Fold this sequence. Notes:
Chain A has helices at 2-5, 8-21, 33-40, 44-56, 78-99, 102-121, 127-160, 163-171, 175-193, 197-223, 225-230, and strands spanning 30-31, 60-63, 67-70. By secondary structure, the first copy, chain A, is mainly alpha-helical. In chain A, strand 2 (60-63) and strand 3 form a beta hairpin. Chain A binds a DNA duplex through helix 4.
Amino acid sequence: MTSSNERAADRAYRMIRADIMSGDLEGGSRLGEANMAERYGLSRTPVREALRRLQSEGLIEALPHRGARVVDWRSLDIAAIYDLRAVVEGFFVRRAAITMPDSEIDRLSGLCDTVERRTAELSLRDPELIDLTAEFNREFHGSIARAAGGEIFAAVRGSVVIGPLVLRTVHDYTREDQQRSNRHHREILAAFRARSPEWAESVMLAHVYSAKTRLLEGREQLLGPASVEAS
Amino acid sequence: MTSSNERAADRAYRMIRADIMSGDLEGGSRLGEANMAERYGLSRTPVREALRRLQSEGLIEALPHRGARVVDWRSLDIAAIYDLRAVVEGFFVRRAAITMPDSEIDRLSGLCDTVERRTAELSLRDPELIDLTAEFNREFHGSIARAAGGEIFAAVRGSVVIGPLVLRTVHDYTREDQQRSNRHHREILAAFRARSPEWAESVMLAHVYSAKTRLLEGREQLLGPASVEAS
DNA sequence: CAGCCGCGAGTTGCATACAGTTTGGGACGG
DNA sequence: CCGTCCCAAACTGTATGCAACTCGCGGCTG
């Protein structure tokens, strides 16, 4: 009963987001409210709310009275965003290593189990796996932020982590990337159990910087080497 | 043309936010959409949008079908928020020391002139001075964030710096606090001119930690010493 | 007397009608 | 032939009516 229990606004949010991720909506595409409403069989109200949410998460940008456009993530200063993310997530994980309760560490460990099992079962590009991985990352790192400083920290993290970048990262995973990412998560939990902020932060920095490198390499392929030099 | 050009949703956002910061809406107050709509002479639609925005910024919390409540800022972990702010603003100022153009440094310097002049002219508790100081702080630190990484960084800063906390800080300024704050701003600009990230960051950290201390002392007065120990 | 069931009040969530604004094209004038 | 002005279409922004859901209170039953 997912569809009946879920709010229409949430459904609209998920569907639009999925279409952006799948590339069905290219960067620069124009999103009209009426257009979207008809496309997903809803009225404009929930679509409007979904667009506002996507806007605050940085997936789309809204022009006054001229509709919304899908953000072209390639134009963002990816290096800067990831450097900021490293600083912030490093700070969070340092605190969480002290404050996160054992029960929550166990819960995250259980989530790791699930992800690793599905990773082994599903094919590399399976949409279900991509979705699961993205969702797990949100949950894992969000939980760390929450343990470090409550809902406000989680909200701050949400504004630092731009959606398209995460999706692109997950989408371009190789098997090796997947396994390294999973190992990072495991090691962070190990550092939590040892209550070692320094250890936890070191792993987290490796985790973020590896993602940054992967993303920059991906951009190099898409745009050509010249553009990378420019930055 | 401010009010006619501005969207009703933005007006609702500003007004509700102002009423929260001014203490007109106490922490824990119940906010009904219809209630707010009548209060500000608007319909429910823009109010609804404003509430969603305030929720995503952490100023209010929404219950499923029972309306929204103002978050009690005194219950927030102020120390944690300011520690995070120190990390983030330190990162910003480090980068801005390299990237901020001379023209922008000059502009901020001019703003400092104005603030210092008005500080000398007006009485300590003059609402105009409090307003001016709060606005100047937003502009000064916002400009640093923008120089460090564009609009995205400015948005992140906005989510870290909770409105009520800043206003409370400014409201409780003593003459000495004012002058120290102004000297900090001047010294940051001096570090920018010298293009020294380390110098700039050191001053910024002093700036943030002094504000944190002031706020914690203020809370001690409001809640009594016992509550401070509890944290 | 205690616990459960059901109904009513009140609130949010959704759909739709209406108004204001922007933009682009076409016609007219130079 | 080109530039300018105006109008209409399309869109967002706003208001309001209606439906769905939650919670609390009162009465009924064991």
